Amino acid sequence: MNILVVGSGGREHAMAWKIKPSPKVNKLFIAPGNAGTRELGTNIPVGVTDFEGLKKAILDNQIDLVVVGPEVPLCEGLTDFILNDDQLKNLKVVGPQKQGAMLEGSKDFAKEFMQRHQIPTARYQTVTVDTLSEGLAFLSSLKAPYVLKADGLAAGKGVLIISSLEEAEKSLKEMLAGQFGSASSKVVIEEFLSGIECSVFAITDGINYKILPEAKDYKRIGEGDTGLNTGGMGAISPVPFCDARFMKKVEDAIVRPTVAGLANENIPYKGFIFFGLINCNGDPYVIEYNVRMGDPETEAVMLRIKSDFVDLLEGAATGTLADKAIEFDPRTAVTVMMVSGGYPGDYAKGKVMTGFEKNEGSILFHAGTKLSGNAVVTDGGRVLAVSSYGNSINEALALSYSNAAKIDFEGKYYRKDLGFDLV
Ligand code: AMP
Ligand code: GLY
């Protein structure tokens, strides 16, 4: 098969790395890809929401299977576009249509879905300008801290956790007045849940599913989980507290009812489901759904999938996942994200990166890089994911840290305390 991966981050590089060795692959393409993916396949300079450009790339390169990495093209209907096009409709696509992508694209839709299917999640109320007074009443019925979420996609910035009621009331009004544009014309107010978070992933063909290795990601910029939220500063898999007992609860109470709920509501769904969970005293609750793999979790999770990933992708796209096997690598896998100085605030791009050849034993997934002449230069906030195997969390982290130390670019930063809450 000829395969196209849509996206340009570390997640897509890690997927390409896992796709490339499959005996089922003829040619691999990445659109638009980055300086790392070009070593695994052919980068096609087309943006992820340029549907006509992607169509041309698919036809020109006789693509058989498309995997969509990020949420934005899914929420904008890339899969629907492909399946409704006469020339493309026989393509195998991994990534849900718009309707299924609402699980991520609308927090209110996701909460209503969970409520309909009795999936454990925080109590909530959805508010618009017209129902502000009910929202304020619900807020004052909750205990601090207060959780306010913009309903729509807000590039990971749409969730506010606020300690005082007065501040929360003020923020609610600001959000409804357009703080996050149309994404916050509806706001979900949630009860705060206290516990430790983890990310669980499933691939599904809409009926059957396979649970992938779980991971823990580290979202804050600062050590000890302090400072601003980022796209993710690193990930660890497996997660020690996600033992067989906990994972059975996750499957019984969350994964199976989610997939069955989609099927019962006739929502077609062929792709990944990312369950952002919180462990409250041993019981899992859903914090959020995403309709794609996590980043940087994928840069650890791919290392732990032993079976042929392309076989799983094909199973999801063709409704034959029940016939597929999934086997995990028993080792620990971690990824350490190297970021540009200043991120997640303002940062410079175009810094020359050196030291790649000194890497010993880690796998380097490019997150935000590009080629400038012969040099690899930084091209984003999150720059490079340094992934490693180990027999323990500490062993795998030590390897990633030793290789991260050898990669240089002006302003480089990475957290050195990953796993502090696990080991
Ligand atoms: P989200 O974008 O929905 O993943 O939310 C971002 C982060 O906010 C999550 O990773 C949690 O750390 C936190 N969060 C969201 N909802 C809740 C909640 N109901 N209780 C506690 N923390 C939450
Ligand atoms: N690592 C969290 C996310 O991909 O949204």
CATH class of the domain at 2-97: Alpha Beta
Cα Rg:
21 Å
- Characterize the overall form: globular
Neighbour order of strands in the largest sheet: 3-2-1-4-5
Helix content: 25-40%
Tally of DSSP β-strands: 23
Report on the architecture of this protein.
The chain has 423 residues and is of the alpha+beta class. Among the domains are: 2-97, Rossmann fold (3-Layer(aba) Sandwich), CATH 3.40.50; 123-190, ATP-grasp fold, A domain (Dna Ligase, domain 1). 29% of the residues lie in helices and 26% in strands. The protein has twelve helices and 23 strands. The chain has a five-stranded parallel β-sheet with strand order 3-2-1-4-5. The longest helix is centred in the middle third of the chain and has 21 residues, at 244-264. Glycine binds at residues 217, 232, 290, 294-295, 297. The site of adenosine monophosphate has 12 residues, from strand 7 and strand 17.
Please describe the topology of this protein.
Blueprint (H helix, E strand, L loop, with lengths): L2 E5 L2 H10 L8 E5 L9 E2 L7 H10 L4 E4 L2 H5 L2 H6 L8 E3 L3 H8 L1 H10 L7 E4 L4 H10 L4 E5 L8 E4 L2 H15 L7 E4 L5 E9 L4 E3 L4 E2 L2 E3 L3 E4 L4 E4 L6 H21 L6 E10 L2 E8 L7 H4 L7 H10 L13 E8 L12 E2 L9 E4 L2 E4 L2 E4 L3 E9 L2 H14 L17
Parallel strand pairs: 1-2, 1-4, 2-3, 4-5
Antiparallel strand pairs: 6-9, 7-8, 7-9, 10-11, 10-16, 12-15, 13-14, 15-18, 16-17, 18-23, 19-22, 20-23, 21-22
Keywords, please?
Rossmann fold, single chain, Dna Ligase, domain 1, binds adenosine monophosphate, binds glycine, globular, 423 residues, alpha+beta, 12 helices, 23 strands
